[in-house]
């Protein structure tokens, strides 16, 4: 097995010089660095990452706590974060939280105990959540992703309020006065913000809100079927629906089709979250498209900045989504 001493002999330098170059622990002249890197390539030396982490107190790993398996929007964000982390020389350790506060705490603790350099986290709770409190009390370098739940941490996500208000006003301008909203639990910050935007859009359109038109629950087939049935059973049912995320969108369409209700002929539909095949539906889905690549890369960038400068002021970054205007809202094809 090739050792650091073999590299040192090949390059004509001391073992400590090779160590400083490999670990980045001291400035080394550029010509010496080039000789050592050439010797590493020629000898096939592979640095011992465990030994390096013990020496530098850095593991070059980032923990990611997110409900990626049940939410394909998050799966796309994970891919963007992994790409950005790898480009910076970090390995991403993924743990699925299932959007359960107790599991989130267990996952966060497990990642922290594995000495990750920092954590990326999509919390399902507000600032009172146990995992967020754990991270705050131990001052773990953390960036909140998508769900900007506590300004105590760096965080990045989409602007939800104005965007959902835009969807609501757009449906109102199509002549709809009974607009329903299906969204996830209000403990999840993104859903709470989208609900706020829905109500702001009703106010802007001069529509009196009706709490019977808002249904909250865990995104999934069972909830969507129950919510759609509940809304359709109202004495004055909605003529348009807004979906709180992409998972709900699919289940709402499934529930409407099971009842023979056509979109947009019988029910207009506008969605938060675009996805790769939204324009393959018939009709094509009108949606707010989140900047997934920018959120993923931005989250990693915020964490790397925090690791490089632990005392820097915290930052909250909000990115504007893009309105994908298609036909499910009842508008003719553009």
UniProtKB/TrEMBL annotation:
Positions of the HTH lacI-type domain: 2-56
Residue ranges constituting the HTH cro/C1-type domain according to the UniProt record: 3-32
Listed transmembrane segments: none
Keywords in alphabetical order: DNA-binding, Repressor, Transcription, Transcription regulation
InterPro entries: Cro/C1-type_HTH (IPR001387), HTH_LacI (IPR000843), LacI/GalR-like_sensor (IPR046335), Lambda_DNA-bd_dom_sf (IPR010982), Peripla_BP_I (IPR028082)
Family annotation (SMART domains): HTH_LACI
Pfam family, one: Peripla_BP_3
Single Gene Ontology MF annotation: transcription cis-regulatory region binding
Record-linked PANTHER family: HTH-TYPE TRANSCRIPTIONAL REPRESSOR PURR-RELATED, LACI-RELATED TRANSCRIPTIONAL REPRESSOR
Protein name: Transcriptional regulator, LacI family
Organism: Stackebrandtia nassauensis (strain DSM 44728 / CIP 108903 / NRRL B-16338 / NBRC 102104 / LLR-40K-21)
